[in-house]
Amino acid sequence: MSRHPNKPNPYNEYQQLAFHPYNVFLMLLLAGISALFLTFLGAFIYTRIQSGMQPMRIPLLFVFNSLLLLAASWAMWRAKRSFLLDREKHYLLELKAAMGLSVLFLLLQSVAWAILFSRNIFPETDNSAAYLYLVSGLHLLHVLAGLPFLYFFTKRSQKQLADPVSMLIYFSDPEMKLRLRLLNIYWHFLDGLWILLVLFFGLQGWIR
């Protein structure tokens, strides 16, 4: 059902998010995270060139975990789409799918590290491995940090959507739309960052 698209919306700050405080905070956060990872990757390249570090092969599970994060990011995109279409059942399932896939990513990334340990690849004995453990661990911490926000957002959504009256309010609530949008941005960012990290370390043999 149409929500009167031609009617003036008093909540333009939620549609034009450039200077909304939540959006500004998230953009600054993502800029800081990007700078942090770029610093570590730059340090890796410098150390690799100066000390002649040998490249290392990352476990294929790192690649599979990329697919998990891609699926979680896709589920978040689907959830946003379902929100706009007022499809409450699909919406909740997609939020839960994104959360479940992210948790599975955390578990399997621990398995990927265990595979490295089984190959006797430890941070203290291999400089390349030390950087790999560092950046993949930092990424995992950022996924872990985002999960409580996604969990409580999903829990609140499920509670409000259980009642038909509050459901109507929910899908017209600009604050919920804003929070969902910010969660989408964060998850897409983590997904893209992880893929770049996997490509970087997967192709590090090309670095001279």
How would you describe this structure to a colleague?
The protein is elongated and about 65 Å long. The chain has one domain: Four Helix Bundle (Hemerythrin (Met), subunit A) (Up-down Bundle). The protein is mostly helical. Helix content is 78%, strand content 0%.
Give the secondary structure arrangement, pairings included.
Layout lengths: L11 H4 L5 H31 L8 H25 L3 H31 L8 H35 L2 H7 L3 H29 L6
Helix pairs in contact: 2-7, 3-4, 3-7, 4-5, 5-7
Supply database-style keywords.
Four Helix Bundle (Hemerythrin (Met), subunit A); disordered N terminus
Percent of residues in helices comes to: over 70%
Provide the structure class: mainly alpha
Structure annotation, total helices: 7
The average pLDDT is 87
What Rg do the Cα atoms give? 20 Å
Q: CATH H-level name... which superfamily? A: Cytochrome c oxidase, subunit III, four-helix bundle
- Give the topology string: H per helix, E per strand: HHHHHHH
CATH architecture descriptor: Up-down Bundle
Number of strands: 0
Looking at the structure, what is the overall shape?
A: elongated
Strand content: under 5%
Number of domains: 1
CATH level 1 name: Mainly Alpha
CATH topology: the name is Four Helix Bundle (Hemerythrin (Met), subunit A)
Spans with pLDDT under 50 lasting ≥5 residues? 1-13
- What profile does the largest beta sheet have? none
> Could you tell me how far the N terminus lies from the C terminus, measured between alpha carbons in angstroms?
59 Å
